[in-house]
């Protein structure tokens, strides 16, 4: 590795001295040194060494409109000039909260006309846990408290969100999960489908929900919570049979359905919401990330009329955050939604850049290292395998090969994220065709380079 510039060395030393990073092993990170991002525009980021890198992950699944949009900065400045903060606790409201709530009611599916604002996806899911339990208690069914979620789901990192999520690494620290959360199998055919066809496995995974309901008892269950497509779990796109079968099961049971749309919302899958892409009709939706394209932190829970009407009859909901409906974050979100609408980014993902990138991405499936290349809208994964076409054979020491490939991708000026031994992408919805070509070329070179490196290391 070349020696970092003095500026980078200085940044790294100060960062190492004082900054505890999210989801990081700080000792090994500090030994290696962080990449310092100093600029971003459109689909690109620049580090302090002058490298220009294609941001294949939209920051962290959030920068749907691309980086560096001046309109958002101006909207934020305008709002700050009026006022930067007032709360919504004590019989107060303000224009940005009103306009954003109204806009969300317009763009979400018809059952949604009301929103509870929060500051993040984790807070949205913590709100969901409290809200669904409060809903059933208000209906005189206080025993309906259990939330069913899936293994390897990601719902955030607070006590509630981390518990609802099905990540064993998160559960292993800090006394999670909290009581009353039950995890069932995920619809991950490539990794767990065994001898079943995709269609069979989709039905099987959905019926795990039915089994859990029968075991726990419908009278004890508040809600089923799921991402339409699991994001952080590795862009797990369920088989086509999965959601229809879940729908059939829930139609026979009195259990709420919650869609965690924190990633799949705001155009990512080629519709405004992933629920529309999969024909799901949730009672609640968690939203964050793309709502503001990450320019400022804001999230929410969309509440269907069915649930809201009960809650409104039940008096005060003892819940909220200082920054619920923060006026400046709401102004940023509103401007972001204006851009998504005016530039027809949702249609663009469905009809133009989505199909274009998907075609090139699926063609990576030809590569000898790739067991499957899948993508819906603009979120995709490639599964790296040692013995193609076997799905069963895996690399030893899960995650090692994925990390090697991820680092090689960065060296090829493309941000891809490693999940186990797969590589995932979720580029900005503004990605141009030319940038898509560059992304695909870097991804293919990464696969070639990774294959060579694995042979050199004796791992292949
Ligand atoms: C990122 C994410 C969250 C958590 O959002 P934060 O803003 O990081 O708290 C929740 N659910 C899903 C599906 C996510 O991808």
From TrEMBL:
GO MF annotation terms: transaminase activity
Pfam families the record matches: Aminotran_3
EC class: transferase
Statement: the UniProt record of this protein carries the keyword Coiled coil: yes
InterPro entries documented for this protein: Aminotrans_3, Aminotrans_3_PPA_site, PyrdxlP-dep_Trfase, PyrdxlP-dep_Trfase_major, PyrdxlP-dep_Trfase_small
Listed EC numbers: 2.6.1.113
Keywords on record: Aminotransferase, Coiled coil, Pyridoxal phosphate, Transferase
Plastid among keywords: no
Needed cofactors: pyridoxal 5'-phosphate
Coiled-coil ranges per UniProt: 433-460
Family: Belongs to the class-III pyridoxal-phosphate-dependent aminotransferase family.
Protein name (database record): Putrescine aminotransferase
Organism listed in the record: Kaistia defluvii
